[in-house]
Write a structure and sequence with these properties.
single chain, 469 residues, alpha/beta, Rossmann fold, 3 domains, two-stranded antiparallel ribbon, 17 helices, flat
């Protein structure tokens, strides 16, 4: 089986899943159109088909924004139904208040949209229950053999324990290699055989699709001839660093070696302008956001003033020094969510249940309303909409010393939201900073206009469900 065939197999289930949802959404729209045409007003076939395509595309965009297409979404059936309902509500708002206002000829009736949404809610919820909870995708998983059972290999074991982490693959076993350090991988997970003489035979007999090189010591330890023979037969051979990046959307900082930073594709800075949202687009988006959110900002400012600002005489805004692109400092602007004396004893990390946060502050922090004044920073060119979150100089100075490659996150402009905010839960410690760096480096390596747009759409999920910070 060729490499292309095997990787094609891994995407078949995903394509079938998307195609099935498109069909179900189209059917929902067509049934609603038919009902309207049968009992109320006639609707032409052309009109029905156009609305079916529009309805499907709009629902899928809204589904993306609430995380329904996140491959590692961890939700029970109730959580899935909740997100489906929110998706369809968003879709109704998008179509009724924007699309149909701009293109009134497309509008059938509000009743059509209600019927289509109700049918879609039933069909999509049932389909997702069948697809996910009966593990239909298992047939598409590639079989992986890890060459190594020491400290480096154990990172795969620790980071990918859950089934949702192994959606695209299954680990056949970890093969102990001479020179590996004991890392406590369970005996039943080890694949013991004479890898120096029987690796190719084992790979063929167990239908291995991918070999991951994860041994602690590789000098003269790996059977190069067998690995070459595997590659010529279409078996993928990949390093653990690339494997973790591919499967988790992060770069394992603790596995990086200096030459990787120089030779890795995607880290060259001359791509910044071409692949990142440029200033003009950021500025246009900031103006649009200000036009849409100014009532929320006005109410927020009033609530902060009434709760704390009136008594303390402190501004409703909070200016704080942060580190920007190329390490240049700038002042970030936020709504004040903490008491005026929050840092009387010096700078310290914020925490999830910080007692310095005011009552209004808890609400605006949860839904990221406190970040809205940073649109001014975007207009000033200090930040973009997407990028690593800027950190305080007091913390950066220490983090640069403690965490390898931390300074690389300053090679791009900081953002209002970022890949780490999508992928990592709320955290505010040095350990959390290291975990978030793994996602920030992945973003820097893979940044593109499409990735930025996807992050912007998915940020809606953070706002709705209070994920990340």
């Amino acid at each position: 089986m060729s490499k292309a065939t095997r990787y094609g197999r891994n995407t078949i289930a995903d394509k079938l899943f998307l195609l099935s949802e498109v069909i179900l959404l189209s059917v929902s729209s067509l049934l609603a159109s038919y009902a309207i045409s049968l009992y109320f007003i006639p609707v032409t076939i052309e009109h029905q088909l156009i609305n079916a395509a529009l309805f499907s595309a709009s629902v899928m965009l809204c589904a993306l924004s609430v995380g329904l297409y996140d491959q590692k979404l961890r939700e029970g059936q109730k959580g899935i139904i909740k997100r489906v309902v929110i998706t369809l509500l968003f879709n109704a708002i998008l179509l009724e208040l924007i699309v149909f206002q701009l293109f009134p000829a497309l509008h059938i009736s509000s009743l059509y949209l209600a019927i289509a949404s109700a049918i879609a809610a039933l069909l999509i919820s049932a389909f997702r229950a069948l697809f996910h909870y009966h593990d239909v995708t298992r047939i598409s998983r590639r079989r992986v053999l890890v060459l190594g059972a020491g400290e480096r290999a154990s990172i795969i074991e620790k980071r990918m324990r859950r089934n949702v982490d192994k959606r695209n693959f299954e680990i056949v076993g970890f093969t102990p290699i001479d020179g590996d350090k004991d890392a406590g991988i369970a005996e039943h997970k080890l694949a013991r055989f004479d890898y120096q003489t029987a690796l190719f035979q084992y790979v063929m007999e167990h239908q291995i699709d991918q070999l991951v090189i994860a041994c602690d010591e590789r000098r003269n330890m790996l059977p190069v001839e067998h690995l070459f023979k595997c590659k010529t037969r279409g078996i993928d051979v990949i390093e653990i660093l690339d494997f973790i990046e591919q499967e988790t959307g992060q770069i394992a900082v603790n596995l990086i070696y200096p030459s990787w930073v120089i030779y890795a594709n995607g880290l060259d800075l001359n791509q910044r302008f071409k692949t990142n949202l440029d200033y003009k687009l950021n500025a246009v988006l900031a103006v649009l956001m200000l036009a849409l959110t100014w009532p929320v900002m006005l109410i927020t400012a009033l609530l902060i003033y009434l709760e704390d600002g009136r008594k303390s005489g402190t501004s409703v805004f909070y200016r704080q020094l942060r580190v920007g692109i190329d390490g240049k400092p700038f002042y970030i602007i936020k709504f004040r969510s903490m008491r005026s004396d929050a840092e009387k004893n010096g700078a310290r990390w914020a925490s999830a249940n910080d007692d310095r946060v005011t009552r209004v502050g808890k609400i605006i922090r949860k839904y990221r309303i406190d970040e809205l004044p940073q649109l001014i920073n975007v207009l000033a060119g200090d930040m973009g909409f997407v990028g690593p979150r800027p950190e305080r100089p007091e913390f950066v100075n220490q983090l640069v010393k403690d965490i390898p490659y931390y300074n690389h996150r300053h090679n791009v402009k900081p953002g209002l939201t970022g890949w780490a905010q999508l992928k990592y839960p709320y955290g505010a410690t040095a350990e959390d900073a290291q975990e978030k760096l793994k996602f920030d480096l992945y973003y820097i390596k893979h940044r593109s206009l499409m990735l930025d747009l996807m992050i912007l759409v998915r940020t809606v999920e953070i706002v709705l469900f209070g994920k990340g910070r």
